[in-house]
């Protein structure tokens, strides 16, 4: 089990290597990169601008306290608030990046799998695209609901609750990044879930590593395209192994 878990983690590095060694893949990430860089820049500026304003307001509120105490409270509240907002911002940007970049990343998957595995990019009709979108949305909603329940449990059960949440969400993250490559290989989301259920440790290793990386501010811009290719290799070389 542990061997499969760390094998899943290794596909992150393989995706990273595949993306940065093939410069032709960069064009698929260029536009999402530019869009999200602009959004990040504006959002981070806004965070620090308002943090400065809040700091000034707190300084006035703590004026009657001893200077060392007022300064300490000001720093703790302002810095803590800024860190929390930046983490929330990172999560929000990750979601927007995936949303805006989905078309480019689907094309990236098609290009890479055609080059490496000889899989022709799938051309879908309007109804097939609609079903794909509904299935993906349904999976995303279920994942979000599970995350909500796990998050509440993690508050009730310290430490162990966080670890369980991280691993279970890692599993769902792993599946979510393989949806594009599964669809390109003529599998539905439900079929992908069934295939992954037999290789839980492998998928969890990949998804947990991806989940961890995406919680780090600014890494989303550079990691996400590599995760797309890592998921492609994981699906083609492990998940669908033995299926004709």
TL;DR of this structure?
The chain has 244 residues and is an all-alpha fold.
Report strand %. under 5%
Average pLDDT over all residues: 81
Evaluate the radius of gyration: 21 Å
Order of helices and strands: HHHHHHHH
- Indicate the overall shape: elongated
| Poorly predicted tracts of residues | none
Describe the main β-sheet briefly.
none
Query: How far do the termini sit from each other?
Result: 25 Å
Number of helices: 8
What structural class do the secondary elements suggest? mainly alpha
Q: Let me know the number of strands.
A: 0
Give the fraction of residues assigned to helices.
Answer: over 70%
